[in-house]
Amino acid sequence: MRVEDLKRVQIECAKKVVQEDDFGKIETVGGMDLTFEKIDENPTRAWASLVVIELKTLRPIYNLVVEDEVSFPYIPTFLAFREMPLLLKLYEKAAVKPDVYFIDGQGVAHPRGCGIASHFGVETGEVSVGVAKTKLFGHYREPGSRRGSFTYLRHRDRIIGAVVRTKDNTQPVFVSVGHRISLKTAIDLVLKTSKFRIPEPTRLAHNLLQKVRRESLF
DNA sequence: GCGACAG
DNA sequence: ATCTTGTCGC
């Protein structure tokens, strides 16, 4: 498949993204993450995990890990084509579906308006939020150093996301709308689920994978 | 042409 | 993303 075709898919995906709250209550939040056996090899073995927490207590109520081979390379702005297959496999096997999904990466804060979080939301029809550790696209002013402060990520005076401080004196995270949720609610949800820098759903999903990867080693 | 560039 | 010990700060 050519790069032009992939761009086409993202442009079509962007048209389907819903950037307003479109759900009932949010009582559970899920975090998805991936880890690779060898980042410098292609294809390579990879694992994906889903951890669902209860919003009220921030305690995990469900875990799941799936494994598969990934062959598509990592190319900036085309992350979804590398990780989506495994995320969908994880989604299909999940016995517990959270009310919203936190995905590692950008949502609409993407050159063509459809980062992996939006791609996942649009393809599954689920509510999703993009939570990234670094920026991919847009400009911003550094937010205040205290937990809770944030600034907006912009692209030509258009707000595409937010740079949120989830912990005092720590690097912020980049939050953007995935699908069926407003940026305001997404920011609020990320802050409500953060005890440390990374929101609990994502942090726990990541920790679970490190453990699985370590054990699948020797 | 140059710099930027999720995981 | 992954390779990796100690070390500095709250």
Structure in words:
The chain is of the alpha+beta class. It contains five helices and eight strands. The protein has helices at 3-16, 79-93, 116-124, 183-192, 200-215, and strands spanning 28-36, 44-54, 59-70, 100-104, 128-132, 150-155, 158-164, 173-179. Strands 3-2-1-4-5-8-7-6 form an eight-stranded mixed beta sheet, sandwiched between helices. β2 and β3 (59-70) form a beta hairpin. α1 crosses α3 and α2 (79-93) crosses α3. The longest helix is centred in the C-terminal third of the chain and has 16 residues, at 200-215. The protein is globular, with a radius of gyration of 16 Å. It starts with a helix and ends with a helix. It binds two DNA strands through β1 and α2.
Residue share in helix: 25-40%
For CATH, the homologous superfamily is named as archaeoglobus fulgidus dsm 4304 superfamily
Largest sheet: number of strands, sense, barrel closure: 8 strands, mixed
How many separate domains?
1
| Largest sheet: spatial strand order | 3-2-1-4-5-8-7-6
Globally, the shape reads globular
Mean pLDDT: 97
Low-confidence region ranges: none
Number of helices: 5
The beta-strand count equals: 8
Radius of gyration: 16 Å
Q: At CATH's second level, what is the architecture?
A: 2-Layer Sandwich
SSE string, helix = H, strand = E?
A: HEEEHEHEEEEHH
Proportion in β-strands:
25-35%
What is the name of the CATH topology?
A: archaeoglobus fulgidus dsm 4304 fold
> End-to-end span in angstroms?
36 Å
Which structural category fits the helices and strands? alpha+beta
CATH class: Alpha Beta
